[in-house]
């Protein structure tokens, strides 16, 4: 079974600084996808970034980038130039290629200090 | 935004009563998911569906059943509600691995069992 672990429950970053959120996962599959989702206080789940396991290149979306280490089963999210609007809960998620099962970690609450 | 609607958005019910939550999509996505979100636990998969009448259990399926008689509707039933089922419930949809694995979420249903 797939598991996703986010071991840090909370993190804080100064506005304009860079922060990295950690995630590890366990899977027996070679074909899968990884995601980071953001959940602001509105409770809406927002897709931040996606990574295909077969791609070696790390995904990037504007100020958000990932460090994907397939052998280590690690998938961290880097937020550059942090903004107040980045304050939210962030979830790491694993999607199996075989049956499209989507498993989430426990999430991390990110606060941004002005 | 993906056309996905959850109903009701809020519900208070008594212990022992059956409750049905509805997820309706207008996107014709093959996969549909039900999650519950609780503090300290992140999003946990209850059940998911990979087609009409095709469903599978997630990690916290006890006490829940689902049905999908049409592509657009995925129902979650609490057969006899208990206080431990007080939670926020999210529905999500996806095209799956071949069509696009990103999941899009409804706005959530806050259920309180008293």
Topology:
The complex is a heterodimer of chains A (114) and B (114).
Chain A: E1 3-5, E2 10-14, E3 19-21, E4 24-26, E5 32-39, E6 46-52, E7 60-61, E8 64-69, E9 74-79, E10 88-96, E11 102-104, E12 108-113
Parallel strand pairs in A: 2-12
Antiparallel strand pairs in A: 1-4, 3-9, 5-6, 5-10, 7-8, 8-9, 10-11, 10-12
Chain B: E1 4-7, E2 10-13, E3 19-25, E4 31-38, E5 42-51, E6 54-57, E7 64-70, E8 73-78, E9 87-94, H1 96-99, E10 104-105, E11 109-113
Parallel strand pairs in B: 2-11
Antiparallel strand pairs in B: 1-3, 3-8, 4-5, 4-9, 5-6, 7-8, 9-10, 9-11
Explain what the structure shows.
In chain A, β10 (88-96) and β11 form a beta hairpin. The model of chain A has no long low-confidence stretch (mean pLDDT 94). Chain A is built from no helices and 12 strands. In chain A, the strands form 3 sheets. In chain A, strands 2, 5, 6, 10, 11 and 12 form a 6-stranded mixed beta sheet that branches. Chain A has a 4-stranded antiparallel beta sheet with strand order 3-9-8-7, with no helix packed on it. A two-stranded antiparallel sheet of chain A has the order 1-4. Chain A is 0% helix and 54% strand. By secondary structure, chain B is mainly beta. Chain B is built from 1 helix and 11 strands. In chain B, a hairpin with a 2-residue loop joins β7 (64-70) and β8 (73-78). Classes of the chains: A mainly beta (114), B mainly beta (114). At the A-B interface, β10 and β11 of A face β4, β5, β9 and β10 of B.
